[in-house]
Amino acid sequence: MCRYLKLFSCILVGVSLQALAAAPIKVGMSAPFSGRAERLGLDYRAGAQLAFNQINQQGGIAGQQLELITLDDGYEPLRTVDNTRQLVFHDKVLALFGYVGTPTSNAVLPLLRHEQIPFIAPFSGADLLRQPADHFIYNFRASYAQEASAQIQYLVDQRHFKKIALLIQADEFGASVERNFLAELHKRQLKPLVISRFKRNTTDLADAVAALVAQKPDVVLTVGTYQVLIDAIELGATQGFNPLYSVVSFTGVSELTSLLDPRQQVLASMVMPDPNQSKLALVDAYRQQSLAQTVSKAALLPAMAQAKPRLSDVALEGFAAATVLVGALKQCAATMTRQCVLQALPQQQLYDFQLQYDVQRHQASQQVSLMWLRQQGLQPVSD
């Protein structure tokens, strides 16, 4: 009888170990999947899922599937806090990944600092996420400071514009980039004609645009999301106000291009290559995975047979950041701990996309490029 009990116990232990081995590696993401900034969250998630699906189809990480748990925060910080508490304490995720936005990320920083949970590749270039003491943060993208520097070098140093205004989202995102713009202008003994502000996710831009029109700047440096900025540009145009606008990468350059009147002049600083035209192996891998997913969907939905993959700079960034995360998880397959993942992330390479990890800012990529938004697509400023 005792022998049978031991055998039964061994079987139970074996089953338990198999179940444990098969448990998914859970990663949590809070982002806008609805509202006026929804395309940012939807595209970043779509790009990340391409990389996660690819590794899962290959058997996962040492047999464990990678599960991305996503919650909608509508780009509102209070909802981000609730989502994060659920992901950390209820879902018990290994790490948080791809949070979209500076105000939303800022809202959860106290919780993250207390729990020391890995906060990987937030979709933000803010300085507040690049503090030396925050070793639990891994920034994939270049910073807003680097984007502001690139924009001002071109617009002021090369093009010699001096009549400059700022159109700024009134929150931590706007404040972060505004400080970078003002610092760059101050180096050149310049001040903006006006700093006009608007609320996050707003539909009321009348006062903000009126303040710009009254000053008649030649250049408007903007900080906001694609839909709000399109509304502001179109409202100004109805009043005969058509300056040169600039946008930062967070705006959602691909989405902005699709909505933009081709008569408008818009310059974008980007932290990723052109997802449609770049010849980098990274971008080719992203396009190939996007095509494979479209073909797979078409097999299930014949109506999609002629559909083309939807490519965007935000989705490409999601794909790139997720690919780096997958590499780190593979490296930690034998010891899947948060500490191992944080140590492995800076060691990763990404196809032929150059990464040069900055220990002080916890930042992997330093790449920024300037593009004109044209009807036919993105055009480098050198062209």
TrEMBL record:
CDD domains: PBP1_ABC_ligand_binding-like. One of its GO terms (biological process) is amino acid transport. SUPFAM superfamilies: Periplasmic binding protein-like I. Coiled coil: none annotated. Residues 1-21 form the signal peptide. Keywords: Amino-acid transport, Signal, Transport. This is ABC transporter substrate-binding protein. The keyword Glycosyltransferase does not apply.
